[in-house]
Design goal:
Number of domains: 2
Structural class: mainly alpha
CATH topology of the largest domain: Glutathione S-transferase Yfyf (Class Pi), Chain A, domain 2
Strand content: under 5%
Shape: elongated
Number of strands: 0
Order of helices and strands: HHHHHHHHH
Radius of gyration: 29 Å
Distance between the termini: 46 Å
Largest sheet: none
CATH class of the largest domain: Mainly Alpha
Length: 237
């Protein structure tokens, strides 16, 4: 494997990992809601390579249009400057200040217009990346919702059950596998998010991906706390 491959995430390998995890969940818990979430994550992982490549690819038509408009603006500004003529009687101080203020305002507006055109492509790509990352944020919260009621303490202690209590249908082994799957899905969710900024260096998009990674890491930590309780109880038993 080349050095460049070692230094980057391979979308195909991530997709394969998600697909394998989805099959494992379907085989262990057929028809479960967690399995449906894994299928959603697999669909997003399949789209991630195409989307990330589209985001990284230059939009040449937009670049050409922006360059032409910037050139027209600059040419117009230069033409205006060279067409200015000093009044024969000169300028009084008040008139000079008014002219200077108007000139500064025009320069600021022209600069803002050029900046808008120069960064237009990046903003379009950023919007696409943030939209994709938002899908993964939703997936992460869905995974967290599925593990919320999977409490090992309820399985280990025979406390009173009410009508609204979660159904305790899993064995300790099944609960451990379920929580393991949740943790793996959260980790892979963060990996899929990282694909979008691998070839698109944008501070806002990178911050959004870092937020997803922090979110999935924090949620996974909650899952591992439950797993530790479950493993400790098995050891004690």
């Amino acid at each position: 494997m080349s050095e460049s491959k070692l230094q980057s995430l391979d979308p195909n390998l991530i997709e394969q990992s998600v697909a394998l995890l989805s099959r494992r969940i379907a085989e262990r818990f057929p028809g479960s809601s967690l399995g449906n979430v894994s299928k959603q994550l697999l669909l997003i992982a399949k789209q991630a390579k195409r989307r990330s490549e589209s985001i990284a690819r230059p939009i040449f038509a937009l670049r050409a249009g922006s360059v032409m408009l910037i050139a027209v603006i600059v040419a117009g500004l230069v033409t205006t400057l060279f067409s200015l003529k000093m009044p024969k009687g000169g300028l009084e101080l008040v008139e000079f200040i008014q002219l200077l203020e108007a000139g500064i305002n025009d320069v600021v507006l022209i600069g803002a217009a050029i900046f808008f055109l120069a960064t237009f492509e990046s903003r379009i790509k950023r919007t696409r990346a943030l939209r994709a990352v938002h899908e993964l944020r939703t997936i992460a919260h869905l995974i967290d919702m599925h593990q919320l009621t999977k409490d090992p303490e309820r399985l280990l202690s025979a406390g009173p059950v009410t009508e609204s209590s979660p159904k305790r249908t899993m064995t300790a082994f099944e609960l451990g596998r379920y929580l393991d799957y949740c943790s793996e899905m959260l980790s892979l969710t963060g990996k899929v998010a990282a694909i979008y900024v691998q070839s698109f260096e944008d501070e806002v998009a990178l911050a959004a991906v870092n937020e997803i990674e922090n979110l999935t890491t924090g949620l996974s930590r909650k899952v591992w706390q439950k797993l530790m309780i479950l493993h400790t109880s098995k050891t004690a038993a």
